[in-house]
Amino acid sequence: MRRFDERPEFDHLLHWVRGVPEATEAYRAAGVPAHTNEALDGFQNGGWRLDTRYIETLTITDPDALRASRYADALRLLRPAVEALEGPAGAFTFAVNVTDARATAERLRAQGHEVAEFEVEVAEHGVSFVEIFVLDGPPWQPFFITYDPPREELLAGVDPAAFERGPHDLTGLVVTDPQPREAARALARLLGLRAENVEVPLSGAHIRFERGERRAITAVTLSDGSGVAGPNTDVEGLVLRFTG
Predict the structure, then answer these.
(1) Sign of torsion, CA 117 176 15 185?
(2) 20, 166, 98, 158: CA torsion to nearest 10
(3) Which CATH number fits domain 166-242: 3.40.50.300, 2.60.40.4320, 2.30.120.10, 3.55.40.10?
(4) pTM here?
(5) H/E/C letters for each residue in 5-29?
(6) For 65-106, what is each residue's pLDDT tens digit?
């Protein structure tokens, strides 16, 4: 199969919450300037936008409307990851931006993975995207996404004052697994990268594996460049680690 440069980069983390406005308040109380969007298509989302990267908080508000929406198929595939959460809320997967998601799907199929492809058009915002879901593996594992136009072009047309970044940068995700080294190698193969011990150097947010009974995304690491670590804060089942 023809090789190509996928350029995998962290795009966004999906954080299932009991209520988006309440999650927004909790993030902001922790010093992370999250926001809330209006409910649409049977679900509501919000989150924290940094640049091309973001954390998305979301919950279902109208199951009937959701089943008829453009997001129904993708959310159906994500349901097992939500159901695998230890409690009613928590981070359950993340998206990786690639240059051509359909080409990435070809690579994954050649490696023996079962994948599903979806294309979603958001006409009101002049954007569409292709999502690739890997159907085998741990529930939390990432999916792949390619935007049209590319996300850098989309962001270039947005006034920087349109979103509030705040002082912190998102530097990484923390995933627990009974065998962290093996899990890191498996994720690296999926992404087309090379693991470094228990870390996968994904551009935009390194993925660090720690030993634990659950296979789950448990924390994010945030830095403000000060070098002074702050207290960890649990927001709706996701721990914010302020590393300084």
Answers:
(1) negative
(2) 90
(3) 2.60.40.4320
(4) 0.96
(5) CCCCEEEEEEEECCCHHHHHHHHHH
(6) 999 998 888 888 999 999 999 999 999 999 999 999 999 999
